[in-house]
Amino acid sequence: MKKILRWFLIFAFVFSLVIGAFAVKFSDTLFQEGNPLPIIKGIIQLQLEDVTYVPINKENTRFIAVHKADSETEEEDSFPEAILYMGNKGWAFDKQKGNELHFTKENKTTIVKTVMYTSDYYIFDVAPE
After folding, report:
1. Which of 5-19, 31-45, 67-81, 92-106 has the lowest mean pLDDT?
2. Counting beta carbons within 10 angstroms of the beta carbon of residue 18, is it exposed (0 to 12), middle (13 to 18) or buried (19 or more)?
3. Which residues are bridge partners to 54 per DSSP?
4. Within 13 Å of residue 29, how many CA atoms lie on the same side as its CB?
5. How many Cβ atoms sit within 10 Å of the Cβ of residue 62?
6. CA 67 to CA 81: how far, in whole Å?
7. Helices and strands, counts by H and E, the chain
8. What is the rounded distance in angstroms from the CA atom of residue 44 to the CA atom of residue 51?
9. Torsion angle of C-alpha atoms 125, 89, 65, 18, degrees rounded to 10
10. pTM of the model
11. Distance, CA of 47 to CA of 121 (rounded, Å)
């Protein structure tokens, strides 16, 4: 029994070292947007479910989506999931300035800010209505 316990403790220690090394190596990427757990959960949902974007906060004002990198893509197609989300809310896409998407609805305008999380995923922030 002691032999099994010793091997289990060795395995747990080595596993902890590997996880710790991984966290230190990628800490800049993992923690760039604060707590990485909701973002990791969102990435898993994007991979396993048939969804285009996933909310990553309780207020449903912050979303993560897959970035489809294409050098021939026009600028307004850079963030189609954010444009689709705002279109579903009744907003019309107006223009893109850098990482900001401008939308209009009646006489109102709003801005959706986007940030690349990794080369494969981006986060977009929607102002609450």
Report:
1. 67-81
2. exposed
3. 64
4. 13
5. 19
6. 9
7. 4, 6
8. 11
9. 60
10. 0.72
11. 11
Q: Can you tell me the distance from the alpha carbon of 109 to that of 123, in angstroms, rounded to the nearest whole number?
A: 20
Burial of residue 121 (number of CB atoms within 10 Å: 0-12, 13-18, 19+): middle
Residue 31: pLDDT band (50, 70, 90) is low
Amino acid at 50: D
Token pair for 25? 């190596």
- What confidence score (pLDDT) does residue 69 get? 65
Binning pLDDT at 50, 70 and 90, where does residue 30 land?
low
Compute the distance between CA of residue 124 and CA of residue 129 in angstroms, rounded to an integer: 15
Pair of tokens at residue 53? 């974007």
The pair of structure tokens assigned to 54 is 């996933």
